[in-house]
Amino acid sequence: MGKLIYSMITSVDGYVCDEDGNFGWGVPDEESHRFIGERSKSVGTYLMGRRMYEVMSYWETAHELAGEPAVVHEFARVWQAADKVVYSTTLTGVTTGRTRLERTFEPEAVRKLKESDDRDITIEGPTLAAQAVKAGLVDEYQLIVAPALAGGGTPFFPQGVRAELELIEDRSFPNGMAFLRYAVK
């Protein structure tokens, strides 16, 4: 059975992007990027909303860019090998391989996916993830904390949700980033 993991880069004050939608303060360096890529190898399916899909679709062709470090090419291959489900009412189609479009997020369908999949599943993008969090579907939270204060914007966690968590892994990086992995008790 696969785990549903909510993982994103977040600021120290808990935002995935600032009030203007910027997230450049959270770009990982090569070491933390390699770590994120290694963690992603367990993922069989990415669930994401339209905006996250538009950002992540970069990885469909990133391996073709000359001059990029090997870590970029490695992560691109990992991302391309996984299945992707995009939830959107506005997209008319998808432009990446191994990708299907769904119009609505159905918690029961995600439960069945978790039961039938032996690989991990990630849910990416705070708006979509909020639905999974509120439905009690998330098994793990993986925060990659950037050494920045966003001062406001889109929060990592939805309001009004409470859960007891157990820290099961942590790591810090020389660039000031920290990885925090929590299991839901």
The CATH superfamily is known as Dihydrofolate Reductase, subunit A
User: What's the pLDDT, averaged over the residues?
Assistant: 96
Element-by-element helix/strand order: EEHEHHEEHEHEEEE
Distance between the termini: 17 Å
- In the sheet with the most strands, the strands line up as 5-4-3-6-1-7-10-9
The appropriate CATH architecture is 3-Layer(aba) Sandwich
Task: Classify the helix fraction into a percent range.
Answer: 25-40%
- Any idea what the radius of gyration is? 16 Å
Domain Bacterial bifunctional deaminase-reductase C-terminal: 3-178
Protein name: Deaminase
Pfam family, one: RibD_C
How would you sum up this structure, described in words?
The protein has 185 residues and is of the alpha/beta class. It has a single domain, classed as Dihydrofolate Reductase, subunit A. 26% of the residues lie in helices and 30% in strands. The protein contains five helices and ten strands. Strands 5-4-3-6-1-7-10-9 form an eight-stranded mixed beta sheet, with helices on both faces. It has a two-stranded antiparallel ribbon with strand order 2-8. A hairpin with a 5-residue loop joins strand 9 and strand 10. Helix 1 (30-40) packs parallel to helix 3 (70-81). The radius of gyration is 16 Å and the shape is globular.
